[in-house]
Amino acid sequence: MECLGVSSLQNLQALSALLSTQQDDDDDDDEDSKNVTAWAQLNPGNIGTPPKKDKEVSGAYVKTNSKDIWGEEEVPEGIQYGDLCDTRPQPEYDILLKQSVGTEDLFLGLSGKDPSSICCEAMLVKIKLPDTKATDVVLDVKEKFLDLRTPKYKLGLHLPHPIHSQEGKAQFFSEREELEVTLLLNRPMDVINMQ
């Protein structure tokens, strides 16, 4: 514990020396550069313990066998839907989390479910689309992104939780002019949390 305190003190002193103001006179620069100690020449990257270098990686780009310019992991999901020239407004929407609750949960508490979001199984996205028909709606759902297009509206929504993109349903209510998209959540710890 004491080593940590000494190290932290030295780190703070080094950071203080870096952030202190120095005069910009040409004459003083020569004298300052001669009098500066080694610890004052540190930069913010030198503060703290140095990172471990298990494996040296060359700066050269390692190309895969594919003819693609970028890999899927390099491009954020949903970036292809961002169009600055598209001036359609974003519709109003709400995101609700849902869970299946039975009488054994409600009255007896046998399943161990609680009202927290960790016990939810599905996500409901309600999107208000005034003056829109169901045939005009184009919907594309990915694991972390929902893309909705109509002639009047555009919605590119980054979802708060990953979902099963193939296991969902959408329903358009003409009387309310609202689209409801139900998406099943895909969280890695659901097997443990739902037990």
From TrEMBL:
Bias (Acidic residues): 23-32
Biased composition (Polar residues): 35-46
Gene Ontology biological process terms, A to Z: axonemal dynein complex assembly; flagellated sperm motility
Domain PIH1D1/2/3 CS-like, first and last residues per copy: 90-184
A GO-annotated cellular component: cytoplasm
Pfam families, per the entry: PIH1_CS
Source domain of life: Eukaryota
Any GO MF annotation of the entry: protein-folding chaperone binding
Region called Disordered, residue ranges: 20-56
InterPro entries: DNAAF6, PIH1D1/2/3_CS-like
Family: Belongs to the PIH1 family.
Protein name: PIH1D1/2/3 CS-like domain-containing protein
